[in-house]
Design a protein that fits this description.
The protein has about 325 residues and is an alpha/beta fold. The chain has helices spanning about 15-25, 40-55, 70-85, 100-110, 125-135, 160-170, 185-200, 215-225, 245-260, and strands at about 5, 30-35, 60, 90, 115-120, 150, 175-180, 205, 235, 280, 310-315, 325-329.
Length: about 325
């Protein structure tokens, strides 16, 4: 039987639906399971986690928009990840994990043999969580680490935390995509990230949308791409106080580099499956023109940063691949 994809968004899952999901996981016929924004009972969540633990086919798990809504659920997910051997991409965007949740998840994340992509955007993380996340980006010569990391909209992380991440990115031998959009980084942290980009031999995509940057940051990045060799191919600077001219100059230079470069050799590790297209939720911060998401069920007490307009998401071709296309859900 061909691998299946189960994708349900914003629904109250019935007992029958949960049973169908679990049966498919137990039969090892599911490659992608997405229940983003869905409501399910604690017992049902525990049942799904139990089946995720034993699944040998599951490559992508999307629990975005508050599905992991308590520490007990975080514990259950950590236990599932500790036993699972197949998962390559985990999406937890918009989950109220806090630092305590990352402390719970970290042993399973750091020891997982196949995990390549992790989305922890809008998870109320702080410096302690970021310290642990940096451990998922091991230096050159160490074990393989993440290829894609999303940390969007985590304003509780301090400048010291971002500085630590910049150092980790500089020495990571695997990271190809880093999404830091809608964090209050400012020009100082952007300068550190520019040094990280220049040092990295693998980073291809850096998303700094809405991070409080000015033309000062853009000039630093422009100087970098003009004068130093870099693997960077996409730099997102929209929703910042940066002139359109500077953004276009940087984009043109990155495009020229991409055209000149030959195809890179294949990366070690699990081969990406071209039939899988992991989805990254990309949100605007809550503003007057945006309203919190409203599904057909009564929303939980805690809601992630989101809006009621069609959700903008980025698609990637295979786990760990560069961002390719933007679409609406």
């Amino acid at each position: 039987m061909l691998p299946a994809s189960i994708q349900i968004t914003g629904e109250l899952l019935s007992g029958e639906e949960v049973q169908d999901i679990c049966q498919s996981l137990q039969e090892d016929v599911v490659r992608l399971l997405s229940v983003r924004g869905c409501q399910l009972s604690d017992a049902a969540f525990q049942q799904v986690c139990f089946c995720v633990a034993s699944s040998r086919s599951l490559a992508q798990l999307n629990l975005n928009l508050g599905v992991v809504s308590s520490l007990s659920r975080t514990n259950q997910l950590a236990q599932a990840l500790s036993n699972n051997q197949s998962l390559q991409a985990l999406f937890l965007h918009g989950s109220p994990l806090l630092d305590a949740g990352l402390v719970t998840l970290n042993p399973a994340l750091s020891s997982h043999p196949a995990l390549l992509s992790l989305d922890l955007g809008d998870c109320l993380l702080g410096d302690e969580a970021l310290r642990l996340i940096c451990g998922l980006l091991p230096p050159d010569g160490n074990k393989s680490g993440l290829r894609e990391l999303t940390l969007s909209a985590n304003p509780g992380i301090s400048s010291r935390g971002w500085a630590r991440l910049s150092v980790a990115v500089s020495h990571s031998s695997q990271l190809r995509v880093l999404n830091l959009d809608y964090n209050p980084l400012g020009d100082h942290i952007a300068g550190m990230l520019a040094v990280s980009v220049a040092s990295s031999r693998t980073l291809e995509v850096l998303d700094l949308e809405g991070t409080g940057l000015s033309n000062q940051s853009a000039q630093v990045f422009l100087d970098m791409v003009q004068n130093y060799p870099t693997s960077l191919r996409v730099l997102v600077l929209s929703e910042n106080s940066i002139s359109a001219e500077l953004q276009q100059q940087i984009s043109d230079l990155l495009s020229e580099g991409e055209e000149e470069e030959e195809a890179p050799p294949p990366q070690p590790g699990p081969a990406p499956n071209s039939t899988l297209r992991p989805i990254r939720d990309k949100y605007q911060p809550i503003r007057d023109k945006y309203q919190p998401i409203r599904d057909k069920y009564q929303p939980p007490a805690w809601l992630p940063h989101s809006n009621s307009s069609p959700q903008m998401v980025f698609l990637t071709s295979g786990v760990g691949e560069s961002l390719l296309a933007e679409t609406e859900m």
